[in-house]
Amino acid sequence: MLELALDEDIRLTSLEPWQAAEFAEFIATHREHLGRWLPWANTITDTEGARAWLADYAEKQRADSARVYALRDRGTMLGGAVFRVFSAELGFCELGVWLAPHAQGRGLITRTAIAMIDWAVTVRGIARVEWRSVSANERSIAVAGRLGMHRDGVLREAVPRDGQRLDIEVWSLLGHEWPAMRAKLIGRCS
Q1: Which pLDDT belongs to residue 162?
Q2: Which stretches of the chain are DSSP H helices?
Q3: d(CA 136, CA 161)
Q4: Is the confidence at residue 123, as pLDDT, over 90?
Q5: Is residue 144 classed as helix, strand or coil in its secondary structure?
Q6: Among 75, 123, 100, 110, which residue's Cα sits nearest to residue 181?
Q7: What digits encode the pLDDT tens for the residues 99-121?
Q8: Which of 16, 64, 108, 123 has the most CB within a 10 Å radius?
Q9: Is 112:75 a contact under the CB 8 Å cutoff?
Q10: Residue 87 and residue 53 in contact, taking contact as beta carbons nearer than 8 Å
Q11: How far apart, in whole angstroms, are the C-alpha atoms of residue 64 and residue 73?
């Protein structure tokens, strides 16, 4: 999946090291919003840091173990999606997403997640898609619910952030559940 049209204007495109300056600028512009939920939004502070992060994902994609995409509206980055973990061999992946605050409320994250899950399950044969979210991130958890995912549990105090430890919720969707869920979702999102 190098580029996927979600509609006439919205595209999901590969996010690669040569786009590091654009990615760094996006993070800097939206750091306060993104940094609440995404640790990398607080650690990527310049173009070189963005390039290193994207190069790591480019290497992982080469090894078929992860990949990262930008969500764009007529070429302008609005957010992105990542398979933070991807193993076709084990039939497992973990999907993550992010979005600029001004782009929220348009269903873009749900549509992006549908496209990513559909590709993972129908093209790559993934049997389990995971979604992990800080328990306080109500918007992310709502998307997991809209996607028909099941809440598997909570990893208590799983990650350190700003001097405290945060709980992470784990949600999942199984490959054999996807066809019926996809039919429901496509009807709602079209």
Answers
A1: 82
A2: 20-35, 40-43, 47-62, 108-118, 138-146, 178-189
A3: 13
A4: yes
A5: helix
A6: 110
A7: 999 999 999 999 999 999 999 99
A8: 108
A9: no
A10: no
A11: 27
Contacts of 107 by beta carbon, 8 Å cutoff, 6+ apart: 189
- The model's pLDDT over 24-42, given as tens digits with 9 standing for 90+, comes to 999 999 999 999 999 999 9
Neighbours of 28 (CB within 10 A): 14
Assigned token pair, 179: 């066809």
Instruction: Name beta bridge partners: 23.
Output: none
Query: Model pTM greater than 0.90?
Result: yes
User: Model confidence at 1, in pLDDT bands (50, 70, 90)?
Assistant: low
163-170 — which CB contacts under 8 Å span 24+ positions?
166/134, 166/135, 166/136, 167/134, 167/135, 168/132, 168/133, 168/134, 168/135, 169/132, 169/133, 169/134, 169/135, 169/141, 169/144, 170/130, 170/131, 170/132
| Nearest one of 88, 110, 108, 81 to 3, comparing CA atoms | 81
